[in-house]
Amino acid sequence: SDLAGGGVPIMLRIPSWADAATVNGEATVAGTFWHGIAPAGTTTSFSVYFRPSVRLETWDAGSISVHRGPLLFALPLTPSYTTTAHHFGTPTMSNDYEIRTSDPWAYTLDADPSFLPESLVPSIYGYVPGAAPFNHSGWPITIRARLRPLYTWKPDARYNESAAPPPKSPACAAATGSATAAETAAGAAAAGASPPPLAAAARSPPAARPPPLHASPGAGGPASPDVPGGTEPGTSGVSTGDCGPPELHDLVPYGGTELRIGEMPLAFHVPFAQRAAAD
């Protein structure tokens, strides 16, 4: 309602993840309400830009997940469907499926929580009108991440050959020494050789397979070549302890995948939440 002719009060909620949001160019405080006034008798526009930063959230044993704004990002895995049961109707109706992948999946995140903008770089391509919000290809945003193969993270028979719980962070310390010499040598030679196939259960029909991962365009220059699973240019490419050389991968919105890794350990650092608990 109009405040005695002084205008209509406006309150806009600023999400807790919008750490650099502005309203009409004015800085705001994340997790609060922005207060303004719409003058009476006029049309007033409010331009809100959330500008969320990439952040990490900490889980069991110090494993982490990657987030930007309200979205969780994950490493997509190419799915391979097998029909395990058919109940009624046509061949594509009311089926049970098993999903496996032959993609490498056991990785650590080689990122420093203190300098995430240097370690996790988002590329925003924009929403295409008419596309499904969580389409399995053509994602409107991806995050380029540096990952390292973790040779000791394997499927677990207790979980029907799904991934075992993520190892403790940091996972690549040379002192861990739990990988065998053969595992380390073979993994380094293959620059991220895959563990045994990863399995997951599903009760939905196959969807479109994601396209190959791609490099983000360089600032002011042409797009980089496709380098999924490739060693990052400018790094030594040396294996460290239980881990292989660094690789560049695109993380995509979790809801736009069929099979994925959404939680992994840090390679060389301890998450902030784990540090605070230790203190």
Count of DSSP helices? 3
- Amount of helix: under 10%
Total count of strands: 18
Strand count, sense and barrel status of the largest sheet are:
8 strands, antiparallel
Shape: globular
Mean pLDDT: 77
Order of helices and strands: EEEEEEEEEEEHEEEEHEEEH
Terminal residue distance:
50 Å
**Helix/strand class:** mainly beta
Poorly predicted ranges? 174-236
Structural write-up:
This protein has three helices and 18 strands. The chain is globular and about 70 Å long. 8% of the residues lie in helices and 30% in strands. 29% of the residues are buried. A hairpin with a 2-residue loop joins strand 2 and strand 3 (26-27). It has 279 residues and is mainly beta. Strands 6, 7, 8, 11, 12, 13, 17 and 18 form an eight-stranded antiparallel beta sheet that branches. It has a three-stranded antiparallel beta sheet with strand order 3-2-5, with no helix packed on it. A three-stranded antiparallel beta sheet has the order 9-10-16, with no helix packed on it.
Labels describing this entry:
mainly beta, 8% helix, 3 helices, 8-stranded antiparallel beta sheet, 279 residues, 3-stranded antiparallel beta sheet, globular, 18 strands
List the helices and strands and how they pair.
Blueprint: E1 8-13, E2 22-23, E3 26-27, E4 33-38, E5 48-49, E6 54-58, E7 64-68, E8 71-76, E9 80-86, E10 95-101, E11 107-109, H1 116-119, E12 120-124, E13 141-149, E14 155-156, E15 162-163, H2 181-190, E16 198-202, E17 247-253, E18 260-261, H3 272-278
Antiparallel strand pairs: 1-4, 2-3, 2-5, 6-7, 7-8, 8-17, 8-18, 9-10, 10-16, 11-13, 12-13, 13-17, 14-15
